[in-house]
């Protein structure tokens, strides 16, 4: 559960949570919510994680949530946006192995043009591991989560690969929309701003506080950054193309 | 053209209009709906301030795009689309 990321963000709140085993059930409390009751360990852990997630996001109620992988380039943050199974996590992990500073594969929070990655390990599906031989034996010993739909997903983070994992706010310098081309060769093309806004909005949740202006914030951010579409096939070609585009 | 019959079109209230390099994104807060407009449609929407009739709008569009003639038919069609999307009334 613990994320081994360094943070350049001040502590804003300390939250206590508890899990008690009483009378044959798990009672999960704290974090500003009532008590949840679960009857097996797996669902108790899921409930606890959801509660932690909710508490961690509470201070970011005025931020737009973007479902995206993210990393830091020379000019600022780079987002990888795409539908489920488009290859975001696989590409992010490959970029990490190739020396890019990648920060996450799931969630980025945006406000006022500044973005911050929500730290969470990169969850790799079994098929992705076959494409990432650079992980080597690491995948075998890494933490994992399993469900009926995805199978066993391996959780890796930058420190496990000897890379930094420093969470800090940064302006968004580039957005990459991933279009799957999984049986072909990768290629990169400039993406019109209007199209990029459409694609990113499809992966956004408005601020929990429903503050006005979040669409404008997103539009301004995308309009001033580099926007490309990655037709994602083989990973080495994609990586080299992104390196040329993004530095 | 129907300038004499129809009142000058005016933008709907509560529109969050965002100008991009290649178009406009309009967030309609009352409907929680996002519209994506090409540059001409976006310009037309911005011009709909309730004082310009259809013919005047066509003249303004021609000026903006350096067109030899006002695009009356295209503006009429564009206004129809904007009305259909409830972006003007």
Structural class of chain A: alpha+beta
- Considering DSSP H and I runs of 4 or more, what fraction of the residues of chain A is helical? 25-40%
Average pLDDT rating of chain B? 93
- Number-wise, the strands of chain B total 3
Uncertain parts of chain B: none
The first-to-last residue Cα distance of chain B is 17 Å
Report how far the terminal alpha carbons of chain A are from each other.
33 Å
Low confidence ranges of chain A: none
Major sheet of chain A: 10 strands, mixed
What would you call the quaternary organization? heterodimer
Number of separate helices of chain B:
3
Q: Which radius of gyration of chain A do the C-alpha atoms yield?
A: 19 Å
Q: Which range does the strand content of chain A fall in?
A: 35-45%
Biggest sheet of chain B: strands, sense, closure? 3 strands, antiparallel
What best-fitting shape of chain A do the alpha-carbon axes yield? Answer: globular
What is the mean pLDDT of chain A?
91
List the main descriptive attributes of the protein structure presented here.
heterodimer, A: 247 residues, alpha+beta, 3-stranded antiparallel β-sheet, B: 89 residues, 3 helices
Could you explain how this protein is built, in words?
The complex is a heterodimer of chains A (247) and B (89). With 247 residues, chain A is an alpha+beta fold. Chain A is built from 7 helices and 18 strands. In chain A, strands 5, 6, 7, 8, 9, 10, 15, 16, 17 and 18 form a 10-stranded mixed beta sheet that branches. Chain A has a 3-stranded antiparallel beta sheet with strand order 2-3-4, with helices on one face. Chain A starts with 5 loop residues before the first strand and ends with a helix. Chain B has 89 residues and is an alpha+beta fold. Chain B is built from 3 helices and 3 strands, in the order βββααα. Chain B has helices at 39-47, 54-65, 72-84; strands spanning 15-20, 23-28, 33-37. In chain B, β1 and β2 form a beta hairpin. The mean pLDDT of chain B is 93.
